[in-house]
From TrEMBL:
CDD domains: ASKHA_NBD_PilM. Gene3D superfamilies: 3.30.1490.300, 3.30.420.40. Pfam families: PilM_2. This is Type IV pilus assembly protein PilM. InterPro entries: ATPase_NBD, FtsA/MreB, PilM. SUPFAM superfamilies: Actin-like ATPase domain (SSF53067).
Amino acid sequence: MRTEFLGLSISTENINVSYLNRHGIRYELDVLASLNTTNNTNRVANILQTEPSFFSDSMKKIGVRSRNVVICVPEDQVLTRLVNIPNLPENEVKDAIYFAFKSMIPVDIDTQNVTFLPATEKLFHKDFKSYYVVSMDKSKAIEYFEYFQKAGYNLLAIETESLANLRCANYNMKPLDSEHFMIVDLGAEHTTITLNSKDVVLYSQVLNLGGNAMTRLIAADLGIDITQAEKLKVQCGLDQSQLDGKVANSIKPVVDSLLEEIQKIVLYHREKISVPRNLKLGYLFGGGASLIGLDSFLSSATNMLFTKVEPLKNIQVPKKLEKDLLNRVNLPQFASCIGVSLKNE
């Protein structure tokens, strides 16, 4: 029987929460909220270090009863690798993965909590099997467990944001089993690009660029404050017909850098992944997914189809929540926490 829990995504600026009621194989949305962290990067870090009451008080206001929590964290808090080992007896797999992973990471493996997931398809060679391996510093994991314990909650598991995004895409967007696909998670300070099969992350990369970099460029180019620049970014995006293209031209350097990295990953897929799989789909996640014109720009520049993720596409939404959700023009920023809530084990 599935244990009921809250799904949380914790980024540098936000803590997003979702709670899904399960009815057989279907899910119904019960809670979707962003905790008020004042959009300050240091604020989230301070909350997790010193303010356990912040979370418990926030949950009381929302009216959530579950005391169990599963969280996902950004890629820069974990180490991930795709490990390939020969086909081995099951009792030898764990040691072989640890031995291979140990040589791939820049830290002592004894300082890490290590988990792995097998890929169902042969990605590189018929005599080898691939595993998506994730590790997190043990001291960091302990910090999370202690924080939620002090807040009166039971932290069941920690996973990477990319895995939560993969789960959300599979459940709601239904990519074909025969295809690999890309996820571009455009956050405030960082962007994570992942290459995915149906069940594992094949490759991930974190870029030090995001929505805030665009906002700062607009503010500098147009001589306005950050608040005004953020509004113009949302209103105009990459639309050249708005304000004589001034906003679009300001943010173009960031978008061009993003495109360059996407093209490198497409090339990696073509040259390194031996399984003949199409890479034609890309899903936009995160707060930057709703940037006007981003989907069409990336689609035309890459010969792929980029679309904004619909994180509630196959999840039932009660009528009492529909009006509230209609006012949220940026649902993709909640995709990660919804992906966590879809976790079955």
